[in-house]
Automatic annotation (TrEMBL):
Top-level taxon: Bacteria
Designated name of the protein: Ribosome-recycling factor
BP terms from Gene Ontology: translational termination
Organism of derivation: Anaerolinea thermophila (strain DSM 14523 / JCM 11388 / NBRC 100420 / UNI-1)
InterPro entries: Ribosome_recyc_fac, Ribosome_recyc_fac_dom, RRF_sf
A molecular function (GO) term: ribosomal large subunit binding
GO annotations of cellular component type: cytoplasm
UniProt keyword Cytoplasm present: yes
């Protein structure tokens, strides 16, 4: 029972890490990365659709993103979505592809992005702690129902805490790496 609970906790904590990594991939560093716009929602036939389902996205140069729609009629919609986003980028449309020139980040913008990263890290830490809280509750319920002993409960809680600490450290490491990436000129 304890093993299954710990396994479930680990799966959910891994999910929090994965969500964090996907989330941080969309935060701009000085280089062009397709992850910057992949998840951008485009209103396509009245349905919000991630850009990566509507176009191929590449970075032919370090500071340029090229978006080639599968359906050229969606070009205007994609352009509109980019303009409406908080990316602060101006699309250049030549009728076939959209080019996004990624300007170098200012010191002020870098600091703002670091704050955004810190907020996302805290959200992930909270998610991991919530998983711990839920699992501790499950373990205590098992003990109340006499499915596990008090000693097993203590061992389970200790294992759960070790797991939580490990994932919190991983979140911190990911954050430091991203912060370094953003501050790199």
């Amino acid at each position: 029972m304890i093993k299954e609970t710990l396994k479930e906790a680990e799966t959910r904590m891994k999910g929090a890490i994965q969500a964090l990594e996907e989330n941080l991939a969309g935060i701009r560093t000085g280089r062009a990365s397709p992850a910057l716009v992949e998840r951008l929602q485009v209103e396509y036939y009245g349905v919000p659709t991630p850009l990566m389902q509507l176009a191929s996205i590449s970075a032919p140069e370090p500071r340029v993103l090229m978006i080639r729609p599968f359906d050229t009629s969606s070009l205007r919609l994609i352009e509109k979505a980019i303009m409406a986003s908080d990316l602060g980028l101006t699309p250049n449309n030549d009728g076939k592809v959209i080019r996004l020139n990624i300007p170098p980040l200012t010191e002020e913008r870098r600091r703002e992005l670091v704050k955004v990263v810190h907020a996302r890290l805290e959200e992930s830490r909270i998610a991991v702690r919530n998983v711990r809280r839920d699992m501790v509750k499950d373990l205590r319920d098992f003990e109340k129902e006499k499915l596990i002993s008090e000693d097993d409960l203590k061992k389970g809680e200790e294992e759960l805490q070790k797991l939580t600490d490990r994932y919190i450290q991983e979140i911190d490491a990911i954050g430091q790496k991203k912060e370094k990436e953003i501050m790199e000129v």
